[in-house]
Amino acid sequence: MGCSSSTQTSTQPAKGRDKGDVIVTSDVTDHDFASTDKKHQKTDVNRRQTSAVPVISVNGGSQHQAQQQQQQQTKQQIQQQNGTTVQKSRSNGDVTSSKSPSGKHGEDNIAIENVEDLIGDDVKPKPTRKKKSSIMSDPKMFDAIDSHVARTPESVCTSIPTLAEYLIKPAHTPLQRARAVYKWITTNIAYDIDGYMGRSQKKSCDSGDVLRNRSSVCAGYSNLFENLCRCAHVPVKVINGYAKGYSHKNTEDFDLSKMETNHAWNAIFVEGEWRLVDSTWDAGYIDGKSFHWKKQDLYFLMDPEFFVTSHLPYIEKDLAKSEVWQLLDKPIDPKTFFKSLELEEGSVKFGVFPRTHKDTIMHVKGETCIEIQKFTPGEILDTLISFESEDENKEYKECVATERCGSDIIKFHVRPPKPGTYKFSLFISAPNENKSWPQLFKYIVKCDSILENLVLFPRHRQTYGPQPEYKELGFGEAIKKYSFFSTETGELDIVLPTLQQMKVMCTLEDGNANKVQNAVFQQSTANSISLSVRLPQKGNYRLIIFAPKGNDKEYAVAANFLLQCTKVVQEFRPFPVVFGGKATDYQVILHEPKAKEIPANSSIVFRFSSPNLKSVQIETKVFKKENDSDEWEIVFDTPGPGAQVNVFGSNEETGTRNGLFGYITK
Question: What is the bridge-based pairing of β-strands 236-243 and 311-313?
């Protein structure tokens, strides 16, 4: 069997299929998982051979001395790990090739060493102690190696020894040599999609054939990696097992007796311990039709606790022998592996993991709430979701509402529209990567029953709650408490904390993204903004808050709120028109009338307060402040129907007065 690449990173979440997994075809057999170098076939990748693959070491100057020091240090580490002294399998550690030891290969002297002298090859697998982030703490640490690999001439690709000889020239450590090999394979070996899908004869998995064809399935990738590493003097193993790939079917009925291997990857001994790598999945992914390059290093030295969510070693159907290659203090059993959620690229890369719902399949009665959290520095900028019915092959856009809880926690409120099975995929916005949305997780939602009075969410693709930069936009810490609001009357009041007096812009949209006019009325003080909201009918609404960014001419989204209205008790009454920002500058708080339409030919009481107003004008009639109170109460006789009634004000008793509020008589 064979296994292809893992999840893709796309500009938009793909629909109607699983992304970047693998397909198992019947013409790939267990024989493919053996190392198949034509001259030195191996039936057990963990057993030594007498007839060994040649290993290249560079015997010249400081590089050879550095390698000898590295080897001596590694031997000491092996002795400590195994509790034994490592003995050379032969009294003479070097076996010379048919060429003279002094024969030149370029500018270096090349000696051929027996594979049995590979340092680390006999080290027992033990749980890793280092994190990938500490080993690869410098993002530029492999720049020179990668650049050298990118310039590999075609003339050295005629055989595994000559290719390995070229690749390791600038390398000084086993890690650097392994990186060079890995980089070349993940940028030069394409997945045999046609053979894998049965559209043509499957290409050979023999390492020499893979090098010549530049294409194979996972067994070919792992075999070529193994033989190049052995030539490069890097201890290496081929690990056979099961991967959650394209053919993987999520099930709650796991049967160990039916479990078969479908993938192969590698382990390398670097930095004093065994580490896991998967060159197949880092080379690229297939979509069932084509192979797409990724050329990444996500699975290079991936930490075992992440690796095991998608890769389960299963060597010779021996669980005891296999579980040690999980490299975990507490290995997981196959049943746990198959039910557990796979951590996709976005999860591992950005440190985002589930706080709840850690199994792939979830049963829902009515609704549920899934929480994720970022455990590494930085914020979750944005997320996208896809909620598809497996029964209907249809996407539903009204079943999930996304809520932001601070900078590091996101909640997904899920309400399936009908009983059935759904695929729920989560994606994250990749910082500094334009239009890139790596996948976080893929859930299977099995809805047993729906809510009695089901109200679906709006078709809004936004995350509700404040944006991560809310402080920079002038809002206080307490705004993190706000995401969802509900009303049983059609009216509600929202008070948002601010760091200073400010004016915001508000947009209200209904469930179909249609704008609702004159439905939000704002008033501000030195440390808050009060928003009065009136909803025309029951349903869901989105309230978008825009705040000034840097200057009053540029505004940015500060928050998105979900408003849920279950009932409206009276006819919708639009708020008065607010002119410009002078009402905010003068700190005017309007008490009444708070409806745009006022009775015609009537005596209307206007009540408001302001510490700054000194004169007020309604139409042509002027009113001046007569005491020290901030409260204003004015009785005004309105004209006939259809007339515009405007209220003006100023912080001076005379001069120009600015528009504050606008009404119309009815």
Answer: antiparallel
How many other C-beta atoms lie within 10 A of the C-beta of residue 65? 11
pLDDT digits over 561-615, tens only?
999 898 898 888 999 998 877 888 888 999 999 999 999 999 999 999 999 999 9
CB 114 within 8 A of CB 93: yes
Direct distance between the N- and C-terminal alpha carbons of the chain, in angstroms, rounded to an integer: 79
- Architecture category of domain 578-665 in CATH: Sandwich (2.60)
The CATH number for 463-573, chosen from 2.60.40.10, 3.40.50.800, 3.50.7.10, 3.10.50.40, is 2.60.40.10
Tell me what the pLDDT averaged over the chain comes to.
83
Other C-beta atoms lying within 10 Å of the C-beta of residue 484: 14
Among 149-153, 416-420, 571-575, 604-608, the minimum mean pLDDT is found in 571-575
Q: Are strands 603-609 and 9-10 parallel, antiparallel or unpaired?
A: unpaired
Q: Is 94 helix (H, G, I), strand (E, B) or coil?
A: strand
Residue with tokens 């809805």: 447
Q: What are the pLDDT digits (tens) for 526-549?
A: 889 999 999 999 888 999 999 988
Residue 54 has pLDDT above 50, yes or no: no
What would the two tokens of residue 175 be? 């890690």
Residue-wise burial string across 295-324, b where 16 or more C-beta atoms lie within 10 A, e elsewhere: ebbbbbbbbbbbbbbbbbbbbeeeeeebbb
What is this structure's pTM? 0.74
Residue among 527, 402, 400, 418 nearest 467 (CA) = 402
| Whether 27 contacts 292, CB under 8 Å | no
Residues in a beta bridge with 502 = none
Nearest to 234 by CA among 200, 266, 192: 266
